[in-house]
Amino acid sequence: MTLYLDNSATTPVLPEVKDAMLPYLLEEFGNPSSKYYSKADNAKHAVQISRERVANLVGCKSKEVIFTSGATESNNMIIKGIADYYNEKRGKHIITSQVEHPAVLETCKYLESKGFFVTYLDVDQYGRIDLEQLKKCAEDTPPLLITLIWGNNEIGSLNPIHEVAQYCFENNILFHSDATQVVGKHPIDLEDYPGLRFLSYSAHKLHGPKGIGAAIIREDELGLPTKITPLLHGGEQENGLRSGTLAVHNIVGFGKAAEIALDNLELNIAELKQNEVYLYKLLKEKYKDRVKFNHLEDNKIPGILSVTFPGINNELLVKNLAPYVAVSTGSACSTSKPSHVLKAMGYDLEHIRSTIRISLSPSVSKQELDIFNQL
């Protein structure tokens, strides 16, 4: 049986999550927007409980959670919605980085075609932005939005989100972060980030179902929802910001996965760190100078290893490993292209095409990781 080590691409649905979802696929199939009868009320109640659980995981209010189909939609919804709603008052300058997920980069490129000006910040050798460069860009041309990935999906490094949030708060700049990779693997309490107004993440990265995610849209200082232009128009679901009949079974699964992730956060982080250290030492001892590591040892998402085997094509390596271990060459959303993340970090094409990503799970045992001794 193949050992699954591609958890940054997606995670298996937990049995408890599946069990929570099933009644809302079979018996409790009501539309939560309908009224008065029990199946509608039961669905509405289930959505509210799930909304509270999803909010608790990141420390925001339940009414600040807008359910979407996933982080890609959330990123598009937030960035395009802000650009459309605020550009006349705040201008058309957007600041992001060169190592964002394609859902952010392609959205920014689209907005450039509509007359917006986007600054793509450089990153250091570990994929992190420079806070001083960001401040200089913002001071030269005040931005309507700063959007930065919280934790990198290929190498795990964390951006200085707290410092950026504080800067944005002090300078009244709208700030969004794609937090897909860090939610459930890094403690987040949005009350500690007053300048962070928007957040995106997906259920399937934390052992929930695919096809459901959240756009966190914080209230302003008056307790009113921050305004954006909706991406989807139609009914009045999700405060009129995301029309369409709610996928109750997926929302319930998301809520259950969020509850479990929060309850086990410290334990999961500890397990991921232990597994990462164990695998790092195993690979280093086995392959010595034939292996290189691109990630930091700390201040990163636990459980993500970026590993380079110089001279070995990563596509062929992943293919040959597939019967035994499931790993990837990088982001599942850009598998047809060499990693733009490693390129922005300064690596040449030869290095990039020899690099794989291993992303661990708390449930993987050290005995299972010993399979690398046999490969």
Overall description:
The chain has 375 residues and is of the alpha/beta class. The protein folds into 2 domains: 119 residues, Aspartate Aminotransferase, domain 1 (Alpha-Beta Complex); 249 residues, 3-Layer(aba) Sandwich (Aspartate Aminotransferase, domain 2), CATH 3.40.640. 38% of the residues lie in helices and 13% in strands. It contains 12 helices and 12 strands. Strands 2-8-7-6-5-3-4 form a 7-stranded mixed sheet, with helices on both faces. A 3-stranded antiparallel sheet has the order 9-10-12. A two-stranded parallel ribbon has the order 1-11. Helix 1 packs antiparallel against helix 7 and helix 3 packs parallel to helix 4. It starts with a strand and ends in a 6-residue tail after the last helix. It catalyses: (sulfur carrier)-H + L-cysteine = (sulfur carrier)-SH + L-alanine. GO terms for molecular function: cysteine desulfurase activity; iron-sulfur cluster binding; metal ion binding; transaminase activity. Its cofactor is pyridoxal 5'-phosphate. This is Aminotransferase class V-fold PLP-dependent enzyme. Belongs to the class-V pyridoxal-phosphate-dependent aminotransferase family. NifS/IscS subfamily.
What labels would you give this structure?
single chain; 375 residues; alpha/beta; Aspartate Aminotransferase, domain 1; Aspartate Aminotransferase, domain 2; 2 domains; seven-stranded mixed sheet; three-stranded antiparallel sheet; 12 helices; 12 strands; globular
